[in-house]
Specification:
Length: 538
């Protein structure tokens, strides 16, 4: 009996010691966060107020070139979870359904002894698997008084979505987890996704600031392939006054009558509506009086868009500060790796656009900041080509778990340690599928190199673009077919074909393999995380 007690006690001590040695992982993921929306990234026209993310960068490593494989919400998340391109994981566009029976890094972390949770935006149709605890928004979710899908059913929580997601994440950290195990918490925000709805705390944050206009706000799309001219994501023609910019529908002039503005407004409580109207009604009155048109109207819409977008980002930043402070107060800061990223970048007026999808730089890049006390050098930067494709294997190596051979990325742990990796990728492969709705962005694939060259093929049109980012950082003039770049073009074509073979995208112009709703029982599928209304394909 004494021997048994000693053995059990030894096992508990060893298990607790092993758990303490392996770091916790806090994976913070936002939606549609452009690099220019984080102060630490700097850059032309950057006025973002993100003190907590800026401090995270000072305490950790900021990646300058984290690239996505497909710049759209659901497909990007599927790649992060599986470590595979979308033609492999079956989720190429937002009409897909995620096969939640397939291998994901949360399932592998569970097997390695981690406690896993996901709280916030999911956007993959089927319920999360591989998580000990999950609480996710249905579809895109709502900014105000959001609904959540849980294993026990659906519930609504009063408050602003970014605050509520944080409240629930803190509840799980405090009381919901097994504290003898290391944890992986996916703390995933809806913000700053369209319609860029700021929290009441941030409504006036940018009132006294004029946001610098990007030099390509009035782009004429000359010098490129035809798809750039055929977009439906322009601030001028496609950004709505009532939904996107929070203005009442024309003719709806009564103060406080914003119920006609958009369906999301009707989710607010009377107190929320009152604070909202006190902010936006004077803006609308001034807008009516100004009677703007042409370029002046576009500039006004840009200012309103950017102030709302950046205020929404600042709400995310404020809440990140709450979680980081909790880690510090509870002695978990030193043994918790904090990773901040987004499902893709976003256009903040560049080329006159909002949204994402294109292989142009602003949506190809996504932020990545990692704090790993004792491993990552504070205030360091990395300029290697890394990808959201690499996240799964990075998490697995951090946890000491095996990395499956069929994952297509590569662990970034050596880079985080400041090591030079001689055979790291020198070119990145991209493939976008969703067409025509929404936003009318033609399907395309291409390659982007570390030396600043980019080749893009719009394969349904058989049109090409080639850019030299060193000489043309705004990507205004395609050099495809230019004799001076013949050798560059030939090299890029070769690299692109090699990457298609490497990533098994060997028939890239064919419709990609896609998991359908029928495979999961259609409407009767109990695993479908659905909410009210039609799912937005954003």
């Amino acid at each position: 009996m004494i021997r048994l007690v000693v053995l059990v006690t030894s096992f508990v001590i060893l298990h607790s010691s092993f758990a303490a040695e392996r770091p916790n992982i806090l994976f913070i993921f936002s939606d549609d966060h452009a690099l220019k929306g984080i102060g630490a990234y700097g850059g032309e026209g950057n006025v973002a107020k993100t003190p907590h993310l800026d401090q995270l960068a000072k305490d950790g490593m900021l990646f300058r070139h984290c690239l996505v494989t497909n710049s759209i919400c659901g497909p990007s998340r599927a790649t992060v979870l599986t470590g595979k391109y979308n033609h492999i994981n079956g989720f190429p566009d937002n009409s897909s359904v995620f096969d939640n029976t397939q291998q994901t890094y949360p399932k592998l972390l569970q097997k390695a002894g981690y406690q896993t949770a996901v709280i916030g935006k999911w956007h993959l149709e089927t319920d999360p698997t591989g998580f000990d605890h999950w609480m996710v928004l249905p579809g895109q979710g709502s900014y105000w008084n959001p609904d959540f899908i849980t294993a026990e059913g659906k519930k609504q929580i009063e408050g602003y979505c970014t605050d509520v997601i944080t409240d629930e994440a803190l509840k799980w950290l405090k009381d919901g987890r097994d504290q003898t195990k290391p944890f992986m918490l996916c703390y995933w925000h809806k913000a700053p996704h369209r319609e860029w709805s700021p929290g009441l705390s941030e409504l006036k944050l940018y009132d006294d600031i004029t946001i610098p206009e990007p030099p390509t706000l009035f782009d004429d799309y000359e010098g490129r392939a035809s798809p750039a001219r055929e977009h439906e994501m322009g601030i001028d023609k496609h950004m709505t006054l009532h939904s996107d910019l929070k203005m009442p529908i024309p003719g709806d002039d009564l103060p406080g009558s914003g119920a006609k503005r958009s369906g999301w407004y009707n989710r607010m409580t009377p107190a929320q509506m009152s604070a909202w109207d006190a902010h936006y009604n004077p803006i609308y009155a001034a807008f009516q009086k100004a009677n703007l048109s042409g370029r002046e109207l576009v500039s006004w819409k840009y200012q309103r868009y950017m102030k709302d977008y950046l205020a929404t980002v600042s709400g995310v930043d404020r809440n990140i500060g709450r979680v980081l402070e909790w880690l510090k107060e509870n002695g978990l800061e030193k043994n918790t790796i904090v990773v901040y990223s987004s499902d893709q970048g976003f256009y903040l007026g560049e080329h006159g656009w909002f949204d994402k999808r294109w292989m142009y730089e602003e949506s190809l890049h996504t932020p990545l900041i990692v704090r790993w006390p004792g491993v990552v050098k504070p205030g360091s930067e990395n300029k290697d080509l890394v990808s959201t494709l690499d996240f799964a294997q990075t998490f697995l190596e951090i946890a000491g778990a095996p990395q499956p051979d069929d994952m297509q990325g590569r662990s970034m742990v050596p880079l985080l340690k400041g090591e030079k990796v001689p055979d790291w990728r020198t070119a990145h492969y991209y493939h976008y599928y969703e067409y025509p709705a929404p936003h009318h962005v033609a399907p395309h694939y291409g390659v982007r190199t570390e030396t600043g060259y980019k080749l893009v093929h719009y394969y349904d049109r058989n049109e090409w673009e080639l850019f030299d980012l060193n000489k043309d950082p705004h990507e205004l003039k395609s050099l495809y077919g230019n004799a001076d770049y013949a050798s560059v073009q030939e090299s890029l074509l070769l690299q692109m074909k090699e990457l298609q073979v490497k990533y098994k995208d060997t028939n890239p112009t064919a419709p990609p393999p896609k998991t359908s709703k029928k495979a999961f029982g259609g409407k009767g599928n109990p695993n479908k995380a659905k909410g009210k209304g039609k799912k937005k394909a954003e």
